[in-house]
């Protein structure tokens, strides 16, 4: 199925679209899970200058990112506390510095989809233009050394197909998971320029579950063998999959529908062909790598635009 023919464009040069004819007839729009709204907040004043949106699972990670990018752009100061803009809600966290917005999305497709609906409407109501959005996160790798950063070429499902399927009104709707190829190549180029860690471009398998859906052997339930697991992960690798996570397919589908240039940048915490278990020490060692790479891209883009001078 294809999206409807209604395109509500924000401004003449906008690159953020919504596909919902019902929004035009609404006197106000409550972005419930953000605790924001068109009748309660001046969204253009608060967010109209946003050019980069970075999203990630954990609230603490996204606060850490806004602190890091503020330092990289020279926008931090001794009194900077970076308040959570969504403090009135316990669902998501949101932070902003200059033209950069940092938002948590929780874990899995349902959670990030809810967040993206309201984020896209927020950008629409704020009259944002030329927005780039990047998911930064963690993942399990395939055939890669732990700590390798994967820039997603194409999100695929658990059968290695490049689409996102959703049931709407009892019918299966299939949407493309294409991402911006130029943005992915730009990120790879900047990683090579940094020279701090290995980065590759590869397909990302997006699953509905952390345990059985990713062929783990350590969940509460498991009906397959180690051999079964290895055969499945080998097929995934041979199809081009280089990492596994739980958000990229719907992220790519919704960003494509919205006209947002999007990328997914995830560090691998382990090689899934060699194990299943994680620990907090591994996470702390590697989780800042996507932040470093994406911050470097933002700095370069802002330097080119004249916004920021090193």
Automatic annotation (TrEMBL):
Group of enzyme by EC: transferase
A UniProt-annotated Pfam family: PNP_UDP_1
Record function comment: Catalyzes the reversible phosphorylytic cleavage of uridine to uracil and ribose-1-phosphate which can then be utilized as carbon and energy sources or in the rescue of pyrimidine bases for nucleotide synthesis. Shows broad substrate specificity and can also accept deoxyuridine and other analogous compounds.
Record field: catalytic activity: uridine + phosphate = alpha-D-ribose 1-phosphate + uracil
Annotated keywords: Glycosyltransferase, Transferase
EC number: 2.4.2.3
Organism domain of life: Eukaryota
Family listed: Belongs to the PNP/UDP phosphorylase family.
Protein's recorded name: Uridine phosphorylase
InterPro entries (alphabetical): Nucleoside_phosphorylase_CS, Nucleoside_phosphorylase_d, Nucleoside_phosphorylase_sf, Uridine_phosphorylase_euk
Boundaries of every Nucleoside phosphorylase domain copy: 51-298
GO terms for biological process, alphabetical: nucleotide catabolic process; UMP salvage; uridine catabolic process
PANTHER family on file: URIDINE PHOSPHORYLASE, URIDINE PHOSPHORYLASE 1
GO MF annotation, one: uridine phosphorylase activity
Annotated GO CC locations: cytosol
Binding annotation for phosphate: 91, 135-138
Binding site for substrate: 214, 216
Pathway: Pyrimidine metabolism; UMP biosynthesis via salvage pathway; uracil from uridine (phosphorylase route): step 1/1
